[in-house]
Write a structure and sequence with these properties.
- It contains three helices and nine strands.
- By secondary structure, the chain is of the alpha+beta class.
- Strands 1, 2, 3, 4, 5, 6, 7, 8 and 9 form a nine-stranded antiparallel β-sheet that branches.
- Bound molecules: calcium ion (CA).
Length: 236
């Protein structure tokens, strides 16, 4: 009697342990699932929330955001222009002459505010203005102090008047020969971010030293007077 009672209490104890194990195991499974689904529930809205916001953004830009975007464009222009102006490989022209000057056919001749020589030196708000709005071609020729193996020419237009009319860029080597580095119809447009438009034309480094630049304008490509402040020759 005593023995079987002991046996039965042992069996009960074993049953209780295995029950605990089973319950423990069963408990774990739903808990893990619950945690997983709970995190899915938590993650779902946070992942979904930015999506509609992002798709609405372009249409619902606030006036403040528009103002910031405008300021950023102005800042980008300022940085671009600063880089060009302070480029150690760029030279400003030491002299300039042109095919025509605004007002040259008037009795009193052109005003000093339109002369080709206004295009020498750095950007300063003083310009050369040509004398044709849509007839024929005009050119501006600039000479430089130090002949260089050239890689780029930058033409600074007041506003952007004439930037689309550039049809040819030539460089004069030290032996006096003119070489065309670019010719065609330009895709460069007026830059509305700043008071000037920088026409930038890069090309393969010349195997000769260039001492002068000639910019040709096809007047009918952009009707109106062409107004150039300065021209940089880039190279070393
Ligand atoms: Ca100038």
């Amino acid at each position: 009697m005593k023995k079987s009672a002991n046996m039965s209490s042992l069996l009960s104890a074993l049953l209780a342990i295995s029950c605990l194990i089973v319950v423990g195991c069963n408990k774990k499974t739903p808990d893990a699932t619950a945690v997983a689904s709970a995190s899915a529930v938590v993650n779902a809205p946070t992942a979904a929330t930015p999506a509609p916001k992002a798709s609405q953004e372009p249409a619902e830009e606030t006036p403040e955001q528009q103002e910031m975007a405008k300021k950023k464009a102005l800042m980008d222009y300022a940085k671009m222009e600063d880089q060009y102006i302070n480029d150690s490989k760029a030279q400003w022209a030491r002299d300039a002459k042109a095919s025509s000057t605004f007002g040259e056919k008037d009795g009193s001749g052109p005003s000093s505010s339109n002369l080709a020589t206004n295009a020498k030196g750095p950007v300063d708000g003083k310009d050369w203005t040509n004398n044709n709005q849509d007839i024929g071609f005009d050119w501006l020729e600039l000479s430089y102090e130090k002949p260089v193996a050239a890689t780029e020419v930058r033409v600074v237009f007041e506003g952007g008047d004439g930037v689309e009319a550039i049809s040819k860029i030539e460089l004069q080597s030290t032996d006096g020969k003119w070489n065309t580095v670019w010719e065609g119809i330009s895709d460069q447009k007026r830059d509305n971010r700043g008071s000037r438009t920088w026409y930038v034309r890069s090309f393969e480094k010349t195997n000769y030293k260039a001492k002068a630049v000639k910019v040709t304008l096809a007047n009918n490509l952009e009707r109106g007077y062409k107004v150039i402040d300065a021209v940089q020759l880039v190279g070393e």
